[in-house]
Design brief:
Elements (H helix, E strand, L loop, with lengths): L8 H7 L22 H9 L5 H19 L2 E4 L3 H13 L11 E5 L26 H8 L3 E6 L16 E2 L3 E2 L15 H8 L5 E6 L5 H6 L3 E4 L19 E6 L2 H11 L33 E4 L7 H16 L3 E4 L5 H24 L9 H9 L12 H7 L7 H25 L3 E5 L21 H6 L3 E9 L2 E8 L5 H15 L13
Parallel strand pairs: 2-3, 2-6, 9-10, 9-11
Antiparallel strand pairs: 1-3, 4-5, 6-8, 7-8, 7-12, 11-13, 12-13
Helix pairs in contact: 1-2, 3-4, 10-12, 10-13
Length: 519
């Protein structure tokens, strides 16, 4: 049984300033949807000034009127309003299930839902929905969340073509960055990030193998948390690698991410990694948020000048925010990064072949294995319109087997070096966390050239299975830049708390303006 958030938690979060008061009140809803947090929404619903049906309807209306610019939502859930009505009934009868009850959540379309198709963006997986919900979806439903629909993504989580274009899929087309529409949203959780940035959902769930939660969150001025490997079940999530994959929450406000993390976390016998987290792991991440968390903290700043002088200037301003709030900032340069880059891709090829074949065996009326997927793509012209190739599929098909000694040695070295790259820096400087730029300003979307996404800051935490949380840090022109906080495994509460204190101090997020282009 999961612990519920204490009854007074919403009031506490409001009183300490981690939740901003509602601001503008546009016609119809009565408050600013972009600025509203889950605690604010719950307070309104408890006071009978808002219902889940009304809230869900507002988001569905925005999907109809705004998503034509952004193209973040593959398919709304036809049962969403019925789920919202059920939540309202629970609230009226005194059976509310906690902070997520009645809150609309968008799911990346590589997360199984029994009442909707799950395609991973591929036309090959259209047809019958999966037999059952992913474990994390079951947990969201148990918490009372309203499944608003499925979000577009980079097809196969960006693991098909050698030069993919983030945010494009054969099923959904191209997702755009809501800040500047001809710019890319980055990473495979593109629709999840763009959807919450554009206020098409209160929360979205993304997934990451390396960068696919944090990079799109950074590019779209939102908050994303890549959990420690094993905190959130992967059962029912279309895989790349069981050694690195994890799902996690994305939202406009860190408190919403923390509340959603508390609901997602849980053990699952079908995913042995979830049996590894400590018995004393926190279960209420929002209740641990403190506005003064930076006071006395020691933060390592990994500048990554390869991301350019404009991004570095944002990090300089971020460092001042940290020091102004009482943190000590020590510049660091984590070791082993070149070797990590050399080892990671070959390991993922082997793991993808193993894990995608296992996943496909759970589905009906779809290609039975990776070889069959390759054949399907060769025969479908629409699958060749942006991801023109499937080089990664073809390389994975002939990659070493999972019991190959060379693969096993390389994976062991890869994981060990990733952990050491974080652990050694933390220990050497007695740090509470390492902070790094999440992303450069978004590049122009171009199917002919693909992504310009060599962004190394996500790799150490992703490969090590360590947590990373990103929050908005500033802008380069009209384009958002995020800052990521990472630390050792199971330190999710610590990175969320530090990131939340930075978010509050910096106040960097601004709503998107849907510009057509920018200089």
């Amino acid at each position: 049984m999961r612990k519920r958030m204490p009854v007074l938690a919403t009031a506490v979060l409001l009183s300490i300033g981690l939740v901003a008061p509602a601001s503008a009140e546009p016609k119809g809803l009565g408050f600013d949807l972009d600025a509203a947090t889950i605690p604010q929404l719950q307070a309104r619903m408890d006071a009978h000034r808002l219902t889940s049906v009304r809230l869900t309807s507002a988001y569905l209306d925005r999907i109809r009127t705004v998503d034509g610019k952004v193209n973040a939502v593959l398919a709304p859930n036809k049962a969403a309003l019925a789920e919202a009505a059920a939540s309202d009934t629970r609230r009226r009868t005194g059976h509310s299930r906690g902070p997520l009850d009645g809150i609309p959540v968008l799911l990346k379309d590589n997360i199984d839902t029994a009442n909707q198709q799950t395609t991973a963006g591929s036309r090959a997986l259209r047809g019958a929905p999966p037999a059952r919900d992913a474990s994390l979806v079951s947990r969201l439903r148990e918490a009372g969340a309203v499944v608003l629909g499925k979000a577009n993504l980079s097809e196969w989580a960006n693991f098909r073509a050698a030069k993919p274009t983030s945010g494009w899929s054969g099923v959904g087309g191209q997702t755009n960055n809501p800040y500047v529409l001809d710019r890319n949203p980055c990473g495979s959780s593109a629709g999840s990030a763009a959807g919450v940035a554009a206020s098409l959902a209160q929360v979205a769930i993304g997934s990451e193998t390396d960068g696919s939660i944090v990079c799109p969150a950074g590019m779209t001025g939102t908050v994303g948390h890549k959990p420690s490997l094993g905190l959130v079940s992967r059962t029912g999530v279309v895989p790349i690698s069981a050694e690195q994959d994890t799902a996690g929450p994305m939202a406009r406000h860190l408190v919403d991410v923390a509340l959603t993390m508390s609901a997602l976390q849980g053990r699952d016998p079908a995913d042995p990694a979830t049996g590894e987290y400590p018995a004393d792991q926190p279960t209420d991440y929002a209740g641990l948020l403190r506005p003064d968390a930076l006071r006395g903290a020691r933060i390592g700043l990994w500048r990554l000048p390869v991301l350019g002088p404009e991004t570095d200037a944002v990090m300089t301003k971020a460092a001042k925010v940290l020091t102004d709030r009482g943190a000590q900032v020590i510049e660091v340069d984590p070791p082993y990064q070149a070797r990590l880059a050399e080892l990671e891709f070959p390991a993922l090829l082997t793991e993808f072949h193993r894990d995608i074949d296992k996943y496909l065996s759970t589905r009906t009326n779809v290609p039975r294995d990776l070889a069959a997927l390759i054949e399907y793509n060769r025969g479908d012209p629409l699958e060749q319109t942006c991801f023109a190739g499937q080089e990664l599929f073809e390389q994975a098909l002939v990659a070493p087997a999972p019991d190959d000694p060379g693969y096993l040695a390389n994976r062991a070295e890869l994981t060990d070096l990733a952990k050491r790259s974080v652990d050694e820096v933390l220990a050497a400087h007695r740090l509470d966390a390492i902070a790094a730029p999440t992303n450069p300003p978004a590049w122009k979307t171009n199917c002919a050239t693909g992504d310009n996404d060599v962004i190394p800051s996500s790799t150490p935490a992703a490969v090590a299975g360590y947590p990373a949380a990103t929050v908005p840090a500033g802008f380069v022109g009209a384009l958002p830049v995020g800052i990521s906080f990472m630390a050792g495994r199971w330190a999710d509460a610590e990175v969320l708390t530090l990131a939340g204190a930075f978010e509050r101090a910096a106040g960097a997020r601004q709503p998107p303006r849907y510009l057509k282009t920018t200089g």
